[in-house]
Amino acid sequence: MITRRTFVGSLAVGTLLATVLPVMAKSSLIRLLDTDNDGTVDLGEAKAAASALFDKLERDKDGTLDKHELVRRLSAKELAAADPDHDGTLTKDEYLALVEQRFSAADPDHDGTLDAKELNSPAGKALLRLLR
C-alpha cells in the first residue's frame, strides 16, 4: 500500500531526477567536447567537434552536406539561411561559420566559453545539434 509519505517522497525524487538528469547529460556532453578539461566549451573545441561531425556526416564524399545529410540538425529554412551561395549545400567552411554564429548566440556574457547552463539554453541547444 502506498502511503501519503511514500507518495510525497516519490514525487520529490521524480522532481529531483527531472531537474538533475538534463544537467548531468549536459555535463557529460561538456566532458566529451571539453578537450582542455576546464569545465566549459570554447569556440575551438566546438569547431573541432563540428569538423569531426562534418566528416562523419559527409558520406558521399563530395565535400558538402545537403539536406539529407543534415536531417535533424538543420531545418530547410535554417539551411537556406546558412547557405551563402544558395546551392542547397554547406561546405565545411560554411558549416563551421554557422557553428561560430550559433556559438556566439549561445554565449550571452561574451566570455568565449559555454557552460552547462548556456548549452541548455535554446541557443545552446541549436549549437549542440551541429556538434553531436
Describe this structure in words.
- This protein is mostly helical and 132 residues long.
- Helix content is 59%, strand content 6%.
- The chain is built from six helices and four strands, in the order H-E-H-E-H-E-H-E-H-H.
- The strands form two sheets. It has a two-stranded antiparallel sheet. Strands 2-3 form a two-stranded antiparallel sheet.
- The longest helix has 30 residues.
- The chain starts with a helix and ends with a helix.
What does this entry show, briefly?
The chain is mainly alpha-helical.
Topology:
Elements: H1 4-33, E1 41-42, H2 43-57, E2 64-65, H3 76-82, E3 90-91, H4 92-106, E4 113-114, H5 116-119, H6 122-128
Helix pairs in contact: 2-4, 4-6
Give me some keywords for this one.
132 residues; mainly alpha; 4 strands; 6% strand; globular
- The number of distinct β-strands equals 4
Total number of domains: 1
Question: What is the end-to-end distance?
Answer: 44 Å
The rough form would be described as globular
What structural class is derived from the secondary structure elements? mainly alpha
